[in-house]
Fold this sequence. Notes:
Layout: E1 14-20, E2 25-33, E3 39-40, E4 43-46, H1 51-71, E5 77-84, H2 93-105, E6 110-111, H3 120-127, H4 147-166, E7 174-178, H5 182-193, E8 197-201, H6 205-215, E9 218-219, E10 232-235, E11 254-255, H7 266-274, E12 278-279, H8 282-285, H9 288-302, H10 308-332, H11 336-357
Parallel strand pairs: 3-5, 3-6, 4-5, 7-8, 7-10, 8-9, 10-11, 11-12
Antiparallel strand pairs: 1-2, 2-5
Helix pairs in contact: 1-11, 2-3, 4-5, 4-9, 4-10, 5-6, 9-10, 10-11
This protein binds nicotinamide-adenine-dinucleotide.
Nicotinamide-adenine-dinucleotide (NAD) binds near residues 178 and 238.
Amino acid sequence: MTLFDHPDFAGHETVQAVFDETTGLKAIIAVHSTARGPAAGGCRMWPYASADLALTDALRLSRAMSFKNAMADIPLGGGKAVILGDARSQKTPALFEAFGRAVDGLGGRYWTAEDVGVSPADLAHARRATCFVAGLDGHAAASGDPSPVTAEGVFRGVRLAVRKALGRDLDGVTVALQGVGHVGAYLADKLAAAGAKLIITDVNAETLNLVADRTGARIVAPAEIFDVEADVFAPCALGGAINAQTLPRLKAKVIAGGANNQLASADVGRAVFEAGLLYAPDYVINGGGIINVAGEIRALDAGEAFDPAWVAAKLDRLTETLEEVLDRAAADRRPTHEVADEMAQARIAAAKAQKLAA
Ligand code: NAD
């Protein structure tokens, strides 16, 4: 099979296999689209069972970044890098410097950042070889932890979805929150302050108790979160929370949370719609984090300091975009994730056409 016949190849502009003999680096950098600006997306380090699985991940994740960045209305395209290896045992400074050289070889068509298995300390090694790195601390353009911005966007999205689906504000609404890590904990605080009643779960008992103590949330075991009586289900842990097994158990009328890849498949998205639940598409509602990163890339590019006002304006726009998705889906009686995909594709196509015409 060639790359062009791969089921996840979606007109990617560049897919680069990287091998560095000295450090043993094996990586794939996928640039899906630069129509809206340089491709941006994190670098993941994962012990893939095969190079084909790594390629599949890079192709899917880079396309997803194009869609997310387009819906966040930021001047960035979509890309992603994957390093094949075990983040617990195979990291070296030289390996990340070699990765930085590969990123630099793309001449600014791809900006890298943190993702699963890759920390700011690793990125600092990559930074020695390239300036196209976001997510480092200690400089005027630095954007810091994206989680509070992500959580604020998700909070506004939950409030909006509740208004649309239930015709009420958050006061007295019950939210079942799965995962109270970085995003989930900030979201819990905001929801509690708005008068929502919380039912929370996490596999980490320490954070769970901390969040429950300050918000008055009721704690349930991880497996029970799908069965509780709630108005909203907010996935804020790992991907695939909504699947054929969990969907029939949900009592909520709204699914809105911060996690990536909430739907196990597109078919499940259709089943969510047919069951009459309102789903806030994950990559739209959680776009606050990438907006924050875009603020850093913008500042680095211009040699300026990070501008929180730019981020705040984009976050306002993000909630408007989510409303557009929900309204269009309601008017056309279609699943929200399909409408979001279509809007993202249209935005990318329009940028491409504009570039060609220029
Ligand atoms: P995190 O690791 O800080 O939090 C995830 C939490 O989920 C952890 O506390 C973990 O213990 C818990 N968890 C894991 N498995 C669980 C399970 N089966 N049941 C219950 N809890 C479980 O990560 P985060 O930064 O808060 O991100 C959460 C989600 O949001 C991820 O899907 C991430 O990709 C997505 N996201 C995060 C950001 C951001 O700015 N951090 C931006 C966009 C999307």
